[in-house]
Amino acid sequence: MNKWASLLLVSFLIVTGGCVRKSILDDINTITGLGYDYVAQNKIKGTGLVPVYGKGKISNATYTATSTTSKDMIEELQHESSNPLAKGSLEVALYGERLAKKGLIEIMDTLRRDPRIGERVYLAVVKGTAHELLEGNYGKLGNGIYLSDLIQQNIEQRDIPKTNLHKFLYDYYSDGKDPFLPYMERKGNKVKILGIALFDNDRMVDYIRQNEMFYFKILVDRYTEGTHTIRIGRNEYAAIKSIVTDRNFSISGPKEHPNITVRISIKGVLHEYSRGRYSKTTKQRIEQAFQKELVKKSSKIIRELQSYHIDPIGFGDETKSRYRHFSYKNFYKNYPSLHIDVKANVTIIDSGVVE
Amino acid sequence: MQSIPERLKISPFLVFFTISSMQIGIGILGFQRVIAKSAGYDAWISVILAGIGAHLSLAMMYSILQKANGSIVEANQQLFGKWIGNILSILLVLYYTGMVVAVLRTYIEVIQVWMFPDLETWVFATSFMLLTIYIVSGGFRVVVGVCFFSIILPSYLILTFFYTFEYANFRMLLPIFDHSIFSILKAAKDMTLTILGFETLLVYYPFIKNVEQSKKWAHFSVFSTTIIYAVIAVITFAYFSEKQLQKHIWATLSMWKIVEMPFIERFEYLGIANWTIIILPNVCLAAWCSSRIVKQVANIRQKYVLVAIAAICVTSACLLKNRNSIELLNDVLGSIGFYFLYGFIPLTFIWSHILHKVRKKA
């Protein structure tokens, strides 16, 4: 290849290299949060959250627009924004409770179809409206980061089971599992997690209350770093930390109507014990009280889920993987009357630095 | 038949790279959905079956070529006579050119959908084909060099799939063999487009230094790609639920959306950009093959043929406007490839075997 040909090649590459649209960071508004609320039949209100970078601090700006459900909300929001809106760094998408009860999957279509939106985006249901929550001012890093940190921290160390856009869609499309999302509320200048919203397909039906979230997480996910306080007797409490949990299922009987046993095993370290000396017998007492409470509360949650005819724990999928030619339809026909047993095994490994 | 000078030949171990770099291309970006359509989550078995099929086909190719002691052009001429043989060779030119178009256009589509929606097809196609002309006019050894780097450089990408393990549920692969053997075989057939590529051996066979030794490398190469495909299939099946997977045209790229590193929030952009290096030998080697066949059959200088083929490729890539037409091309190429690997090759193998025996006696 001679000199002229290579020169031609290089200049062609340089010229055509500028042929696509550029997005310069200073000239775009990055959306970090999106909120959707129900207004009327086929009409939703969208709220876009954009951080505004000032000197030493980040404030929040919100854009709102109302459109029909099918239309791309971000396009509508664009009408209010001076710079093009970029959705590449979306952190959270919030849905108002009323909307969640009508169904979310249509609205979620833009989120999963757009290649620019990551799969790690957190979704959550808001008590009241998402608009109101996004209007607040939380933290120093802007609302988007605040909300995603709030959820992330609660997933890693507290009672929210692993959740994000991918997980929601996995559960939604799975025949033997139903999705769930964190459920939150604005409290002045803070956001509080109220529980876990439960879904039947894409419609929210109820939520797990805050004091039951611990048991719910054990059932659907696993703890690697939890804490929990149990009441053993009158004025007798024990706090356990560094909780590591595991669950497995044993399933027997006919595939349409199997007997399911959930075995939960928990290991933890005693963090605080309110009364008297800690000895071998107290250790056993704590373990037993914990086990009893686990079985009681978990069974109650499972019974509630059965009565709603929803399956966020994934009994359907677990059963499917154990039988050939399994039919989800027959399984879920009998689901409310299935006998689901919970067995718990608690081990306290250590009692801190004192005896 | 002129023999290839020793200095233009390649070492037998490089066959490993020419074969696997050709196999790994665009198919791997989205084969999971296609195979799961018929065989569900038993489809990883189909991947292995398709791999076994590829091994058999490869062994037969070697046997045909060894008996002909030359490339497929000489083999065709010896087996079917000059006229029919040459017609078959010209059909192969169309096949390899089709492959260039399919690879190029599918990759451009990926860029358009995932990165730059306003990228014009002709811009990328022209730049890429200019690069291809530049590489291919450097000769076969340069093309092999590109193949070598296209395996080595992007090989780190396989590690990124371990990010999905956080969300993987391997239980859903159970129970194994829940689908009929028929649907598993059907999925193995659907796998053809992905596993295709090693048939370029038919053309560059005379360029291999020590043929006997290269066999081992060729089979090892097909084996490795099969394993990679099977592993990716299993990881994908664990990561997506079955109906969710059907929604994703490029499941491999969709899996990258979960990868998050401290220095890069979204990995798929890096991955897609990196994929250029994987696509490059696909286009180069296929373009080299088709121009080489024309050179042998019609005795035209390879350089001119190459430019003509590049022009044809750019034009046809621009004519494919949307997803449906691209998918159609890929489907057609997949089925042609299927009948080529498991129809034409075995028949030619038997025919060459018979002819060889007869001629020996005579």
Give a quick precis of the structure.
Chain A has 355 residues and is an alpha/beta fold. Helices cover 32% and strands 34% of the residues of chain A.
Per-chain topology:
The complex is a heterodimer of chains A (355) and B (362).
Chain A: H1 3-17, E1 29-30, E2 33-40, E3 43-53, E4 58-68, H2 73-77, E5 85-86, E6 92-96, H3 97-102, H4 105-113, E7 122-126, H5 130-135, H6 143-157, H7 165-173, E8 180-187, E9 190-200, E10 203-209, H8 213-220, E11 226-233, E12 236-252, E13 259-273, H9 280-308, H10 315-320, H11 328-334, E14 339-350
Parallel strand pairs in A: 1-5, 2-6, 6-7, 7-8, 13-14
Antiparallel strand pairs in A: 2-3, 3-4, 8-9, 9-10, 11-12, 12-13
Chain B: H1 14-23, H2 31-39, H3 43-68, H4 72-80, H5 82-114, H6 121-136, H7 140-152, H8 157-160, H9 181-190, H10 192-195, H11 201-204, H12 211-239, H13 242-246, H14 251-256, H15 268-298, H16 302-319, H17 323-361
Helix pairs in contact in B: 1-7, 1-12, 1-15, 2-3, 2-9, 3-4, 3-9, 3-12, 3-17, 4-5, 5-6, 5-15, 5-16, 5-17, 6-15, 6-16, 7-15, 15-16
Keywords, separated by commas or semicolons:
heterodimer; A: 355 residues; alpha/beta; GMP Synthetase, Chain A, domain 3; 2 domains; 8-stranded mixed sheet; 4-stranded mixed sheet; B: 362 residues; mainly alpha; Amino acid/polyamine transporter I; globular
Your description of this structure?
The complex is a heterodimer of chains A (355) and B (362). Chain A has 355 residues and is α/β, with parallel strands linked by helices. Chain A has two domains: 24-218; 222-355, GMP Synthetase, Chain A, domain 3 (2-Layer Sandwich), CATH 3.30.300. Chain A is 32% helix and 34% strand. Chain A has eleven helices and 14 strands. Chain A has helices spanning 3-17, 73-77, 97-102, 105-113, 130-135, 143-157, 165-173, 213-220, 280-308, 315-320, 328-334; strands at residues 29-30, 33-40, 43-53, 58-68, 85-86, 92-96, 122-126, 180-187, 190-200, 203-209, 226-233, 236-252, 259-273, 339-350. In chain A, the strands form three sheets. An eight-stranded mixed β-sheet of chain A has the order 4-3-2-6-7-8-9-10. In chain A, a hairpin with a 6-residue loop joins strand 12 and strand 13 (259-273). The termini of chain A are far apart. The model of chain A has no long low-confidence stretch (mean pLDDT 85). The model of chain B has no long low-confidence stretch (mean pLDDT 90). The longest helix of chain B has 39 residues, at 323-361. Chain B has helices spanning 14-23, 31-39, 43-68, 72-80, 82-114, 121-136, 140-152, 157-160, 181-190, 192-195, 201-204, 211-239, 242-246, 251-256, 268-298, 302-319, 323-361. Chain B has one domain (15-161, 181-356): Amino acid/polyamine transporter I (Up-down Bundle), CATH 1.20.1740. Chain B is 73% helix and 0% strand. Chain B is an all-alpha fold. Chain B starts with 13 loop residues before the first helix and ends with a helix. Chain B is globular. Chain A binds chain B through residues 1, 6, 9, 12-13, 16, 19-21, 88-89, 112, 115-116, 118-120, 162, 166-167, 169-175, 177, 317-318, 320-325, and chain B through 113-114, 116, 118-120, 123, 126-127, 130-131, 134, 137, 166-167, 169, 171-175, 178, 240-244, 247, 254, 257-258, 260, 265-266, 268.
